[in-house]
Design brief:
The chain has 453 residues and is α/β, with parallel strands linked by helices. It is built from 14 helices and 22 strands. The longest helix has 28 residues, at 86-113. It is globular and about 65 Å long.
């Protein structure tokens, strides 16, 4: 069995891993690249292998950097099945068509405003392409063993990152070798998600390293959030939270309403302005047995939040000038309705923008948290006078100490570990941490490198 790293190396996006033997090819994750332009260009390059030769795909979770290239894969010839957990399937029904729709809208907007270098900008894939890809999906329960292609047995275990997220366990029957893909690993004490399930066996481990060189710190994120909201409302400002539609949006809604209920922040209107996040919240509430929030907690989120569903209502929200809280996608301010809010709110010192998750290099979110005095949105530069905050302690990714803790919980003794899904320094630092802590053979692979399992 061979493993080839088709993405997710040297960066936190574009996760794609190809397992193969003499007869079959199994792709684990099929993500889009996000962030700096040099990475985004990879989405338009020819896929490293002919999509028609891939027999099946297995997903760790629904986030676009792990699932977003699937419509393009199908469009370019993939004909097999795509396997994932039940919740991941439901979320992909929301995320993938939305991604296609947004790309179509962005292409139209670029054409109208003439800020694209292309005479007629085209989307990578359309909403229709996404629905076509969803016809290939097949969902399973955690711990259910299945055979996506002949000779490869697979099982999902909870990864604690977002709803439906999983570690993918693959066993190659003829060689009796096993490899586990961590996917994105959640926190040990997340506000809403349960911790990742320990791993007990793998000959080879492929482990993420988003926060491989950092720890989240000891600060209380709820207290920090309460302080920012109270100060902003006190000066008549609006709090904008760019949030990942899946995971962070639901966590922020829960914390905001909890703080209001405790009297720690003023009672303000709370708007969720993202059709994708609204649908994801509904799915989150349906699957409340998979996370820490009770049915009553989910009802609180639903009852106390004003869901902004239409374009017209979103435009009206841009004109609001009274203190309120707006949660909108995307989490790295790379697209979606949040861009229009940023144009409206960034030039005013009374407002605050709070980022509550990892910001990939090259994204607007990364520029803002690193002190940019202006950002480019829809072809124009907008001044940054609002206060910008980054609450890393609210991230859905475990830091390096939490990942070490998680690896220690099981009886895992892999013969080889490959570190992926991190910036170069973070991955190499994670390599050192694992090697020094456990004495395992650890390596950071290069893009397109192929290894024997």
């Amino acid at each position: 069995m061979k493993l080839r790293f088709l993405g997710g190396t040297g960066t936190v996006t574009g996760s794609r891993y190809l397992l193969s033997d003499e007869h079959h090819r199994l792709l684990v994750d099929c993500g889009m690249y996000q962030g700096v332009k040099t990475l985004r260009r990879r989405n338009w390059a020819r896929f490293p292998v002919d999509p028609s030769t891939v027999d099946a795909v297995v997903l760790t979770h629904a986030h676009i950097d792990h699932s977003g290239y699937l419509p393009a894969l199908v469009k370019n010839g993939f004909k097999g099945k795509i396997y994932c957990t039940k919740a991941t399937h439901e979320l992909c029904k929301v995320l993938l068509p939305d991604a296609g729709f947004l790309q179509e809208e962005d292409a139209k907007y670029a054409f109208r405003k003439k800020f694209s270098k292309h005479e007629k900008p085209e989307p990578l894939f359309t909403e229709k392409d996404a629905w076509e890809a969803l016809k290939h999906f097949e969902s399973l329960h955690y711990h259910e063993t299945f055979e996506p292609v002949k000779g490869f047995e697979v099982q999902f275990t909870p990864a604690g990152h977002i709803l439906g997220s999983s570690c993918v366990h693959v066993t190659h029957n003829s060689s009796e070798r096993s490899v586990v893909f961590s996917g994105d690993v959640g926190r040990q004490n997340d506000i809403i998600m349960r911790p990742p399930e320990p791993i007990n066996h793998a000959d080879v481990l492929v482990c993420e390293s988003t926060y491989g060189d950092r720890v989240h710190g000891e600060s209380n994120p709820e207290a920090e959030l309460a302080d920012i909201i109270t100060k902003t409302a006190g000066r008549g400002g609006i709090v904008l939270m760019p949030a990942f539609a899946v995971g962070r949006a639901q966590m922020l809604l829960y914390v905001v309403h909890k703080l209001m209920g405790q009297g720690k922040i003023p009672k303000l209107p709370v708007y969720l302005n993202s059709p994708m996040a609204i649908k994801a919240t509904e799915i989150f509430c349906r699957h409340h047995k998979e996370h820490k929030l009770s049915g009553a907690d989910c009802e609180l989120i639903d009852d106390k939040t004003e869901f902004v569903r239409t374009v017209e209502a979103s435009i009206e929200l841009d004109a609001v000038r009274y203190p309120c809280i707006i949660i909108s996608a995307s989490g790295m301010a790379s697209g979606g309705r949040v861009l229009h809010h940023l144009k409206s709110l960034l030039p005013n010192y009374r407002n605050s923008v709070i980022f509550a998750g990892f910001q990939a290099p090259g994204t607007r979110g990364d520029a803002l948290v690193n002190g940019a005095d202006k950002v480019k949105i829809h072809g124009e530069y907008w001044p940054v006078k609002a206060e910008i905050y980054s609450l890393d302690s609210m991230s859905a990714h475990g830091d390096y100490k939490e990942i070490l803790n998680w690896l220690e919980q099981g009886s895992l003794k892999p013969q080889k570990v490959y570190i992926t899904h991190g910036e170069m320094v973070a991955s190499d630092t994670m390599r050192k941490h694992i090697s020094e802590t456990f004495g395992w053979d650890v390596e950071v692979p290069e893009l397109f490198e192929e290894v024997e399992i």
